[in-house]
Amino acid sequence: MLTSIWNAVLYQPLLNALAFLVSIIPGGDIGFAIIILTILVKIILFPLSQKSIQSQAAMNILAPELEKIKKSGTSKEEQARLTFELYKTHKTNPFSGCLLVLIQIPIIFALYYVFFKGINFEGDLLYSFIHVPEKVNTMFLGVLDMGGKSLVLAVLAGVSQYLQAYYMPKPVSPTPVANSTPSFGETFGKSMNMQMKYVFPFVVAFISYTISGAIALYWITSNIFTVGQQIYVAREKPRNTLFVKAKINE
Residue 248's pLDDT is what? Predict the structure, then answer.
């Protein structure tokens, strides 16, 4: 039953959208169809992903204040009360970003799965009003094979993943305290940031190369779109930071 729901709600609509795009793109270039479909999905998810990035940025801005509460020496109940008041004052929900990401994951995974299964429009998954494209050109720009391995696209996928990690909202470092050791949370956070920035791009490049050029192109397009969102949030961040600091100092 879960498979039927998956196909009907996510996989099948995306597959049909890809078939439609291939049929209307001159020459049936599957590469351009992948780029357009990925951008369309990202645009549909834009409000959710934008709120998720903004929520992460807001939490990073409040991180020093949260650290002060943890190190205040008050009881757990008082820390919880102060933390709740801080979130309420700045209208920030620490769980909203996670919830928004969880909503996006099935859609993004379904789009990934469309390309992972290979470009095949045969079978009974196409709607009656969507015809099998007469021509499917798997050579993007005439040189990059979407159905096979592409070292060039795999490298670009890794680079785009690095850029996405680089432009992620950075946490505001708390004021260092003399003779104090970093907490487990601080150490773990720095370790995760380092892995996302320097290790995960190699993982993405490896996966992209071992599967297909279509997966690599999807990853490149998705990452570049996300980088644009992150840059937009970063430009707003100075104003948001001043606002938060002003509220904290009131």
Answer: 42
Query: Residue 237 has which token pair?
Result: 């961040």
Amino acid at 158: G
* pLDDT, averaged in runs of 10, over the chain (250 residues): 78 89 90 92 83 73 74 75 75 64 74 77 81 87 86 93 82 50 52 72 90 89 89 67 43
Sequence spans of domains, the chain: 2-249
The answer to whether the CB of 16 falls within 8 A of the CB of 130 is yes
Q: Report how far residue 24's alpha carbon sits from residue 149's, in angstroms, rounded to the nearest whole number.
A: 26
Three-class DSSP category at 82: helix
Of 84, 108, 109, 81, nearest in space to 94 by CA: 84
Extended beta strands in 138-246, E state: 139-140, 144-145
Unique residue bearing structure tokens 């990934």: 112
User: At CB < 8 A and 24+ separation, what contacts does 182-186 make?
Assistant: 183/67, 183/70
